[in-house]
Structure formats: C-alpha cells, structure tokens
C-alpha cells in the first residue's frame, strides 16, 4: 500500500509541536522512528499499552523507573539514549531480577533536530538489543521551545525475580564484605569534561553499561550475596550512607583498595571533587557474607564488566551507622552524605 | 598522579608521625593553628589528627574566605542581581552561603536572578563581552591567592574600556587576621596558640617576609606549609621543634613554591588596582582594621559598590554561635550548643559551618565519629 506521505527529513528536519499533537505527524514519527528502530512483536500490535505473558514459573516481579535529563546529550562513551536503557535495566538488576521489558517516554523540545533524535533512538535500540530487553510501549510529548532541554527520556522496566533470591539492606550483617565492580567516577568526569565553559581534554569515557549479566553471574557464584546497588548520582559514598542508614550498621572502607583511574583522580584533583561522590553508570556495589567474598570477587573479575572489581571494605558494628574510611595516608575519617550538590572549590 | 602522590605517601607519613611523637615533650601541650581552610581540609580529609600524639592539637583558623564573608556582603550581591538586574558571576563556593531572609545566591538564582557560576574570573569578563546589553558584576572574594586574578581582569576591563563590567570587591588579607587573633586578648602572651601553620597559596603571592614582623612582635613561630598532608605533617614537626627550643621564627616548608619576596608581578598588579580599607567586617571575627582591599578611585567605574550605591548592612551572628571562640582556639566545634543539631552543613548557622573548609564543617563531615561515645 502506498502511504502518500512524504518521509520525515532526518537530515535537516526538526521536531515541531505537531509531533506531539496526536495527529498524523505524531503517527508518522512513531512509525518511522520509534516503531522502526525498537521493532518487536509487542510494539507491532500498535496498542496503547503492551500485553505480554510472563515466563513460565515466574513468581515475583520487579518494576523500576528512571528519568534521564543528562546534559550534554552526547558525551564520550555514550548518550542519553543508551543511558536511559542502561539506567533502568540496572535498577531492575540491582533488585536481583532479570529485566524483560522497558517502556520509553519522550519529552521533546520544539525545534530539536530530528537527526539527533534519530541518533538517540538508534542508540537506545542498540542498547536494548544488546541487553536482550525489548522496548514494548512508549509515549511522546512535545513542549514549546525554551520549555525543555532538547530531550528528556523516562524509561520504566519490568523484570522477574529468580526463585529464592532476596536482596536488600535488611540482609546486610556486621562482617559482610563490600565490593565494587570496577573503576569509579568515569561517567561523572566524562560528563563534566564536556560541560559548557569547563571543557578540558581527557580520554575518559562514560562507563554506561547494562549490569544484569554481571548480576546473574554474581548470584550464581555467591549464595550469600546480601545487597546490590548501582552508585549513580552521589557515587560510592552515597550508596554506602544509604545502606548504613537502612541497615543500622557502620561501614569501613579502605582508600587504598578503591579502584580509581589516575586520569579520573587527576581530573577530580583539578576540579576540587572527590571521586567517592562522582557518578557511575556501569558499576555496582555489592555486600556479601565474608566467607563468600573471594569466590564472588573471582566471579566478578571473570566477567567483562567486573574486570577491575575489588573488595573495598567491610560492615562494622556502629550504633551511629557512620561510614568511615581508613585513608591511604594512615588516618581515619568519615565519608559523609553529600551536602547539596558537589560543587568545585576555589582554593 | 605524579607530583601529588609523592606528598600523600603513607609510609613517609608514619615516619613523620614517629618523629613528631619523639619530638613532642609529654610534659606540655602544643596548640597549633592552621590558618588556612586548605590545611583544615587536608587535616580532616586524610585523618591527620590520628597520626599526631594526644598533646599536639590542631586549631582550625579563619582562613576560609567563604566562611568569613559576612551575611551583609552576600545580601549586597543578591541585591545587585535582583534589584539592579545584573548578571552576577561568582565562584561556586559562595552559592550556598545563607544570607538574610532565608535566601542564598542559589535560592535567588532559583527565583529567577541571573547568577552564574564561573571557574575563573576571566569567564566573568568574557560574559560581559558576550552580553554588551547587560551589566555584569563579578563577586570577588578570597584572600591574597584570588586577589591577583581579580586585579588582572580589572586592568583588562580598563584596557578594553568595558562599560558594562564591574567588581564587588571583598578581598581580605591574611596577616591582618593573624594579628587580630593575637590582639583579641588584652595580653597577647595569653592567646592559647603556640604556633601557626602558615598559608600555602597565599604565601606564594605575598612571600614569607610579611610574617617576620608578626613573629617578632608576638613571639609565635610561623611555618609556611603546602596543602598536601605530608607538607602539613612536616610543618607540625618544625613547629614542635621551634616551640621546644623557645624559638619564634618564620620557617618555610613550602620552598617548592614560596620565596621570601613572593610574586612581585602579582603584588604590583594588586598595588595598582587596590587600596587598603580602613576596616572590614569578618564573619566570626567582627570588624578587623586594615584587613581588606577596595578598588582604587582610578578604577571607580569598575567598582560595583560605587556604581550601584551598594550599602553594607551588618547582620549579627546567631546568639548561640561559638564561631568567634572557635576561630581563636578557645573552643572546639563540639563545645558549641548548636553544632550538629541546629547548625549543620545543610543548614549552616555560623561561619565555620558554611564551607567544607570551615572548622565546624570539616569536623562534622570528616571527624564527627570521634565525638560519639562508644
């Protein structure tokens, strides 16, 4: 059947208000962009929602949502598209679940170049394909120029919990070992290196990645895995404080054991930032019983996303539930909650 | 990181810790003030207090430019942005400092004021060039370290004949504040400080010579030290030795960056642009004579205070706040009733809690576990 519609101009075209109006232009955007690149059977039904059967034997489900407003939209090692897929998959994975489906909701700003939107959508499609997760439903809205920042993407994920797996702060016990899956701070520094008025040259790339494969490996290797979390905004320090508060136990980490690239350490030094508080998008923090720690570490290091994994500390008895660090220098200090946003210092 | 890791070496630190423990006389105490926020930060961040014997106590001084900036000065900056509709450019440090009426620069920005964070004052000049139809003000704060860059952009603005750019000058002076601390007692000999860890970056500019009159007059040793933790340890050892030997001299640990004369070119630029204020209100210390700079009349058109007729209104510190005593070494953060309860880094009441380099904020953020009963 001939459509008699002029195809969207993905080279020079721009988003306009009609793309969110519910009319023909919106239908065309969905057909030629989203449906085409996210292509899967469920989406092909063209329904208002996604209808799917659960895998046989599925018991508990996990659902997580994440909004993405990163600036700049494209950064070394990734873009907002890949990030929006990885971020939500990781939230599902940190519960111990196997992610199945995603929804994707776009808020587009009038005037946003279709070429950039295409690049973002292709990147999302690729990230989802690589992760084995289908984007099965979505929504598009367009706001007037000046009322958005190009594009915001909200994704929601659904996954199934394997039989017998329960992770969470409630399982963290004194004596547990604290592990991280690799080099910290790459994403935050990669983003900052491309912020307006702060451009500095660096080879650091964002670590954005989907971690559910690594999590599956870890669950198989360490039955006494107690809790997982991805140290995104606020970094390792924030995750440790969240778990300390929720579990009621103290944490002691060892500065020498914490993996940080020298380029990241140098950039943080220059900007007056602390790598412990800098964001990651492809790393996780794990708590497991001490006897399982070595096996867990070995399993993580055998996985491509856990090559630089390390045991960085342990859970200690502390009624105040403080996070402390043994410094490489030989002293001890607290690693506190971040105050406000991490802002660079002048002297 | 080359040239950085060498100054953070744990093995060398242990060696220095042993040397300090050997040198310190167990029969007496050593109360040493690190003047600068940079030193306070290093001491807290590296857990340096753990490496010192119990009778060597570090007192955190007033050398954090954000902490000592009085509320009234922030109020003036906010007024420029809200009432005069200027683009106000500021270093990030000042954004969260609480001002009158529950405001801060960050909150004023959220309410629509055009306040922009810059990494360098040169960025402020560029913003003025890029926005010829707008008035642009740089909110200049800091000790002698950040003063020469401000002087440089004022000279540049004059050369370019920029009509839409000015500076709200709040630059303060280190030696004047040190003198003020010693003069805070009727008898300076009674001041509870045995020696000073002297500023690092400030001294690269002013040199070590300005402290010579200070040690001669007040008989307290000053050891200029770099901001790396080994620098601080080494300077503590040098101070302990001076105290033991009854010496009071200016010694320079930071020889890789500080000379006796300092940076002559930077000094000349500052001299050309700035002149001494009769007095300046410091948060926590109050009025300190001859402790700050103002823009010379020759550059009046670039002086935001004159250009917009900005008045200064003193806002008293919170009654329960012990910052004044803490900054003079009489009290420790935990001695203050509001420390960690009403006054926290998220809701600072006093000067010492305002910036991460302040004595109370550093103690709260890095050292609070030491205060808790087991």
Automatic annotation (TrEMBL), chain A:
InterPro entries: HypE, PurM-like_C_dom, PurM-like_C_sf, PurM-like_N, PurM-like_N_sf. Signal peptide: none annotated. One of its GO terms (biological process) is protein maturation. Residues 48-161 form the PurM-like N-terminal domain. Residues 174-324 form the PurM-like C-terminal domain. Belongs to the HypE family. PANTHER family: CARBAMOYL DEHYDRATASE HYPE, HYDROGENASE ISOENZYMES FORMATION PROTEIN HYPE. This is Hydrogenase expression/formation protein HypE. The gene is csdE.
From TrEMBL, chain B:
InterPro entries: Hyd_form_HypD (IPR002780), HypD_1 (IPR042243), HypD_2_sf (IPR042244). Gene3D superfamilies: 6.10.20.100, HypD, alpha/beta domain 2. Keywords: Iron, Metal-binding. It comes from the Bacteria. GO terms for molecular function: 4 iron, 4 sulfur cluster binding; carbon monoxide binding; iron ion binding. One of its GO terms (biological process) is protein maturation. The keyword Iron applies. The keyword Metal-binding applies. Belongs to the HypD family. This is Hydrogenase maturation factor. It comes from Chitiniphilus shinanonensis. The lineage of its organism: Bacteria, Pseudomonadati, Pseudomonadota, Betaproteobacteria, Neisseriales.
């Amino acid at each position: 059947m001939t459509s008699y519609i002029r195809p969207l101009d993905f080279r020079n075209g721009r988003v306009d208000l009609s793309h969110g109006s519910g009319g023909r232009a919106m239908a065309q955007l969905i057909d030629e962009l989203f449906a085409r690149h996210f292509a899967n059977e469920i989406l092909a039904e063209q329904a208002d929602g996604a209808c799917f059967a659960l895998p046989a034997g599925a018991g508990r489900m996990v659902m997580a949502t994440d909004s993405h407003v990163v600036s700049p939209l494209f950064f070394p090692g990734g873009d907002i598209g890949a990030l929006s897929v990885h971020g939500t998959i990781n939230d599902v994975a940190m519960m111990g679940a196997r992610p199945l489906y995603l929804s994707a909701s776009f808020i587009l700003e009038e005037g946003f170049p279709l070429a950039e939107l295409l690049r973002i959508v292709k990147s999302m499609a690729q990230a989802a394909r690589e992760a084995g997760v289908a984007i099965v439903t979505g929504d598009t809205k367009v706001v007037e120029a000046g009322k958005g920042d190009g594009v915001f993407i909200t994704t929601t994920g659904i996954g199934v919990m394997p039989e017998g797996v329960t992770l969470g702060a409630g399982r963290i016990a004194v004596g547990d070992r604290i592990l991280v899956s690799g080099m910290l701070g790459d994403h935050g520094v990669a983003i900052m290196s491309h912020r307006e008025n702060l451009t500095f040259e660096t080879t650091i790339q964002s670590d954005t990645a989907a971690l559910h494969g690594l999590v599956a490996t870890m669950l198989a290797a360490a039955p006494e895995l107690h809790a997982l979390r991805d140290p995104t905004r606020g970094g390792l320090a924030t995750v440790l404080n969240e778990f300390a508060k929720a579990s009621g136990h103290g944490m002691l980490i060892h500065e020498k054991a914490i993996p940080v690239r020298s380029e990241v350490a140098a950039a943080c030094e220059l900007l007056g930032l602390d790598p412990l508080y800098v964001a990651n998008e492809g790393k996780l923090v794990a708590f497991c019983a001490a006897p399982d720690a070595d096996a867990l570490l070995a399993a993580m290091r055998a996985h491509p996303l856990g090559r630089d994994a390390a045991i960085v500390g342990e859970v200690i008895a502390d009624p105040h539930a403080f996070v402390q660090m043994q410094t490489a220098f030989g002293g001890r200090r607290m690693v506190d909650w971040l105050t406000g946003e991490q802002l660079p210092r002048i002297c | 990181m080359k040239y950085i890791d060498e100054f953070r070496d744990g093995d060398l630190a242990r060696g220095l810790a042993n040397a300090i423990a050997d040198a310190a006389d167990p029969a007496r105490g050593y109360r040493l003030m690190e003047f600068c926020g940079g030193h306070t930060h290093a001491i807290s961040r590296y857990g340096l207090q753990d490496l010192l014997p119990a009778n060597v106590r570090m007192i955190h001084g007033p050398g954090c430019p954000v902490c000592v900036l009085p509320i009234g000065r922030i109020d003036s900056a906010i007024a420029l942005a809200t009432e005069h509709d200027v683009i106000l450019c500021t270093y990030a440090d000042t954004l969260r400092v609480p001002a009158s009426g529950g405001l801060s620069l960050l909150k004023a920005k959220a309410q629509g004021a055009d306040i922009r964070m810059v990494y360098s004052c040169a960025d402020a000049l560029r913003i003025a060039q890029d926005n010829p139809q707008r008035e642009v003000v740089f909110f200049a704060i800091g000790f002698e370290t950040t003063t020469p860059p401000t002087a440089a952009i004022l000279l540049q603005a004059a050369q370019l004949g920029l009509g839409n750019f000015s500076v709200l000058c709040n630059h303060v002076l280190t030696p004047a504040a040190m003198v003020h601390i010693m003069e805070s007692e009727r008898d300076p000999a009674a001041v509870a400080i045995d020696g000073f860890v002297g500023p690092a970056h400030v001294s690269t500019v002013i040199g070590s010579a300005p402290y010579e009159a200070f040690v001669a007059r007040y008989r307290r040793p000053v050891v200029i030290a770099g901001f790396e933790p080994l620098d601080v340890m080494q300077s503590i050892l040098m101070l302990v030795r001076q105290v033991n030997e009854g010496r009071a001299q200016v010694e320079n640990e930071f020889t890789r960056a500080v000379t006796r004369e300092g940076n002559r070119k930077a000094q000349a630029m500052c001299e050309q642009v700035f002149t001494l204020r009769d007095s300046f209100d410091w948060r926590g210390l109050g009025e300190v004579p001859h402790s700050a700079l103002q823009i010379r009349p020759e550059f009046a058109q670039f002086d935001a205070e004159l250009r917009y007729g900005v008045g200064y209104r003193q806002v008293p510190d919170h009654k329960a706040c012990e910052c004044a005593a803490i900054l003079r070494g009489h009290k420790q953060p935990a001695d203050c009733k509001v420390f960690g309860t009403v006054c926290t880094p998220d809701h600072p009441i006093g000067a010492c809690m305002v910036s991460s380099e302040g004595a109370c904020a550093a103690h709260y953020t890095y050292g609070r576990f030491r205060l808790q009963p087991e």
